[in-house]
Design brief:
The complex is a heterodimer of chains A (214) and B (398).
Chain A lengths: L1 E9 L16 E5 L3 E6 L5 H8 L6 E7 L2 E2 L5 H10 L1 E4 L11 H12 L4 H10 L15 H12 L6 E5 L7 H17 L3 E6 L10 E5 L1
Helix pairs in contact in A: 3-5
Chain B lengths: L1 H13 L5 H34 L7 E6 L3 H4 L9 H9 L3 E6 L1 E2 L4 E5 L8 E3 L2 E3 L20 E7 H13 L7 H6 L2 E5 L5 E11 L5 E2 L2 H11 L9 E6 L4 H10 L2 E2 L2 H45 L1 H10 L3 H40 L9 H29 L2
Parallel strand pairs in B: 6-10, 7-9
Antiparallel strand pairs in B: 1-11, 1-12, 2-11, 3-6, 4-5, 4-8, 8-9
Classes of the chains: A alpha/beta (214), B alpha+beta (398).
Chain lengths: 214, 398
């Protein structure tokens, strides 16, 4: 799968962004065989990038193509299919259901494709140290624990891309490292390309592509 | 298993914030509205059907004639309708149709020709009115020159007279159905008479003469008529729906006569039609308001779950899947309401029929198919409107 950005400038950022960066107003391609790091300071459009690729907003100039298909021409049902089978996201605001337990938050995603068994899901929870929270309501978890639930949820579907918007912002160094290892292992085993937006960290990893947003 | 579990989780998300009181009132409104609609429509149709079931003449039609007074008898006052008067009646806005009732001006006899009844022969008086005043299929009310068989409609008075005659001769009386199979002969003219077979196709309480098709009347007048000018003494008029009160005024103002039972039936029908039509209208408003409340309730439920619905859509849950959950939710509500409506309808109709029967109104033929059809059409409309609204609300969250 290829995601192409052709001279894209988000409307709300039109007057704030300089075109000296490597994303906005430029032609950039993301391939599902690659791991890409997008590095920018706050307010430069990292979350906007995630929202655009997720089809949550269409207020931009230029063209965004997913497998050569313009974003605006993708139907609602096609978007659902993409989100279910091709594009997985970790949103900065986590997008969890606070009134549901950790179990239900994870199963609602996993049940769409029956991607993993309950045992495998519990192993992921254990790996990130939140296996005891299985029956706890998400609203009662700390932000760090919620973020780990959101990370695990993003791994419960088949995908060509995993797009992560500052996915470790609420985690300490140990948990960040564990989560990053888990994601890398999962993506490498399932041939999933990653796009990670960050505030300057590179997580001691080798990136196929680094994009700096000015 | 996964799908079942998924449905359980989606239901838990969507219906955690519901206000069951509002939902109850919405369905209660639908219940009340639909009960009144189905009962009133049922009786509206039953009234129009019932009048016609044993009566060949259209129930909204009446025959009028000028009151017979001493002046008429002494030929001091005219008892016929002039062309100007007929034109005047035709222009009245509350009358749908006005036609002359044609009388015979030729000699005609009816005689029995069947072993079922003793022989009798009588000079008769026949009349004809256009077929659209009769509740009979046109193919049965047709006569063409050359046809041997003539369809006729007998006045009930004639049957009473015949049954009295049979009874006094110690012979069994004849029912309507048997009488329809009895062979009668019609004899036209005195010199070189022509005979026809008379076929009884129905009976009427409203006209005292034997009714024949217009074409037969014209044939008789042409070939056997005395060529005297036949004046119009009776008119048949048909009022527009719910306007019978104005017809009553017209009759009183112009000193007209009408059969009393025609007047009572027409008046009663008119009043009942107005009451039931009003009830239907009010019930429709109640259903409409309830439907709006129901849709607003669902909109509120969706608004309260905006975040949850958006999140599900972002995870890849289909719009259709979410809508189906709402549809299933209201479907159960509708199913309970439908069951209650059917039970309440049947009990109410049975009770109303009992009351009507005890009051002398024979309106007992409950048309269950009709009730179910009306309810189905209304329910499908309300259900589809609700589903479309829910689909739009959910789609807007995408």
């Amino acid at each position: 799968m290829i995601i192409e950005f052709q001279n894209v400038i988000p409307n709300p950022l039109k007057h704030e962004l300089s075109c000296s960066g490597e994303l906005w107003g430029k032609s950039v391609s993301f391939h599902s065989e690659e791991n890409t790091l997008i590095d920018a300071h706050s307010g430069k459009g990292k979350s906007t990038f995630t929202s655009l690729v997720a089809g949550l907003r269409f207020d931009f100039e230029g063209n965004i193509l997913i497998d050569s298909k313009k974003l605006q021409t993708i139907s609602k049902n096609e978007w659902s299919e993409l989100r279910k089978n091709k594009l997985s996201f970790i949103f900065q605001d986590l997008q969890l259901f606070e009134n549901l337990t950790v179990k239900d938050n994870l199963l609602i995603k996993n049940n769409l494709t029956d991607f993993k068994t309950e045992k495998e899901i519990k192993y992921l929870l254990e790996f990130l140290g939140i296996d005891t929270k299985w029956r706890q309501f998400c609203g009662t978890l700390s932000l760090g624990q919620q973020q780990r639930v959101a990370i695990i949820r993003s791994l419960l579907q088949p995908a060509a891309f995993l797009i992560m918007d500052e996915p470790f912002s609420h985690l300490d160094e140990v948990n960040t490292q564990n989560a990053f290892i888990m994601i890398q292992k999962h993506c490498s085993e399932n041939n999933i390309g990653t796009i990670l937006t960050t505030l300057g960290q590179n997580y001691h990893a080798q990136w196929d592509k680094r994009i700096q947003i000015a | 298993m996964g799908q079942k579990n998924s449905n359980r989780i989606i239901s838990k998300i969507l219906f955690a914030n519901q206000d069951k009181k509002q939902l109850f009132f919405a369905f209660f409104g639908v219940l009340i509205g639909f009960i009144f609609i189905s009962i009133s429509i049922h009786y509206l149709i039953l009234i129009s059907q019932k009048s016609a079931s044993n009566e060949m003449l259209d129930a909204s039609a009446i025959t009028i004639q000028k009151q017979v007074t001493s002046s008429n008898t002494l030929s001091l006052a005219n008892h016929t309708f002039s062309n100007d008067e007929i034109e005047f009646y035709k222009k009245l806005s509350f009358l749908e149709k006005v036609v002359k009732v044609e009388n015979n001006d030729f000699s005609i006899e009816l005689q029995s020709n069947d072993p079922l009844v003793p022989y009798f022969r009588s000079d008769i008086f026949i009349q004809s009115i256009p077929s659209d005043f009769l509740d009979v299929e046109s193919k049965f009310w047709m006569w063409n020159e050359g046809d041997h068989r003539v369809p006729i409609i007998l006045p009930r008075d004639f049957i009473y007279m015949m049954n009295n005659f049979l009874s006094s001769s110690n012979l069994p009386q004849l029912s309507d159905d048997i009488l329809k199979d009895v062979k009668f002969q019609i004899k036209l003219g005195n010199e070189n008479p022509v005979f026809f077979e008379a076929k009884i196709i129905g009976f009427t309480n409203e006209i005292s003469s034997i009714l024949v098709p217009e074409s037969f009347m014209n044939f008789g007048s042409t070939h056997f008529g005395l060529k005297t000018h036949t004046s119009c003494t009776q008119l048949m008029i048909k009022s527009k729906k719910g306007k019978f009160g104005l017809v009553e005024e017209l009759i009183a103002r112009n000193h007209l006569e009408v059969k009393k039972n025609q007047l009572i039936e027409g008046k009663l029908k008119s009043i009942l039609t107005i009451i039931l039509s009003s009830l239907t209208f009010i019930s429709l408003v109640v259903v409409l308001v309830s439907m709006i409340v129901l849709i607003q309730y669902l909109q509120l439920l969706i608004t309260r779950n905006t975040y949850e619905i958006r999140t599900m859509l972002r995870l890849g849950v289909l719009i259709k899947t979410i809508v189906i959950h709402f549809v299933k939710y209201i479907f159960w509500g509708f199913l309970i309401v439908i069951s209650m409506i059917i039970i309440i309808d049947l009990i109410s109709i049975k009770y109303i029929n009992k009351v009507l029967n005890s009051a002398g109104f024979n309106l007992s033929e409950t048309n269950y198919f009709l009730i179910i059809s009306v309810l189905s059409v209304l329910f499908i409309s309300v259900f589809i409107s609700t589903v479309i609204s829910v689909y739009r609300f959910v789609q807007n969250e995408f």
